[in-house]
Write a structure and sequence with these properties.
Blueprint (H helix, E strand, L loop, with lengths): L5 H5 L3 E9 L3 H9 L1 H4 L6 E2 L8 E6 L5 E11 L3 E6 L6 E9 L5 E10 L3 H26 L25 H9 L8 E7 L2 E5 L2
Antiparallel strand pairs: 1-7, 1-8, 2-3, 3-4, 4-5, 5-6, 6-7, 8-9
């Protein structure tokens, strides 16, 4: 999918933007993305290699029937930024992930995925990707802040949208996450750019 270029993307109208604050330094959060061993603990089942600029890696999800996606890495700046192209929505899209060090041991992670046409199919793709990135950032936050808590741990083939999940964590840690630690992992859903206007959705 390297034929995709930024000019093509800027002509589209729907962009996903999701932001989450993670209680870890920027380089540590970056490594949780770039290192396939870490990423397999909260997002993918396995990756074929580390995210490096100019390389293509493959991510696999066994819990989705072995689905595989090629990730064409354009930019990999440790502790700062990742840019890659993938086709998770059914068409190639540009993903930019930035890691802003807030200076207090925490990091603001922002994911922008673009773009889709402003039509019924584009809106459907936008919605699915928005939900996916909200989920992914919540899982990343839980993984780093709750010592390897995996929110995505489910039996193969059992995932649905009911919100019911099997989590690999002790009852005490889950109770803490849902009572005293709610604001540490719940992601702000993001925003929608449509027709030149910015619409935000607060969690």
């Amino acid at each position: 999918v390297r034929w995709l270029n930024r000019v093509d993307l800027e002509e589209a109208m729907l962009d996903v933007r999701v932001t989450q604050r993670v209680g870890r330094p920027a380089l540590e959060v970056y490594e949780a993305w770039a290192d396939p061993e870490q990423m397999s603990g909260y997002f993918i089942s396995r990756g074929s290699g580390r995210l490096k600029a100019g390389e293509t890696v493959t991510w696999t999800w066994d819990d989705y029937g072995g689905v595989q996606l090629d990730i064409d890495v354009e930019v990999a700046e440790p502790g700062e930024r990742l840019v890659f192209i993938w086709a998770a929505s059914g068409q190639p899209a540009w993903v930019e992930v930035t890691f802003e060090d807030l200076g207090d041991g925490t990091t603001e992670v922002t994911v922008v995925e673009s773009s889709w046409a402003d039509d019924a199919q584009g809106i459907d793709r936008y919605g699915r990707q928005l939900q996916g990135w909200v989920d992914m950032l919540a899982c990343l936050k839980a993984w780093l802040e709750y010592e390897g808590l995996n929110l995505r741990q489910t039996p193969v083939g059992s995932y649905d949208l009911s919100g019911e999940r099997i989590m690999r964590a002790s009852p005490a840690s889950l109770y803490d996450a849902f009572t005293t630690g709610w604001d540490r992992w719940f992601a702000v859903p993001g925003s929608l750019v449509r027709g030149g206007e910015l619409y935000t959705f607060d969690g």
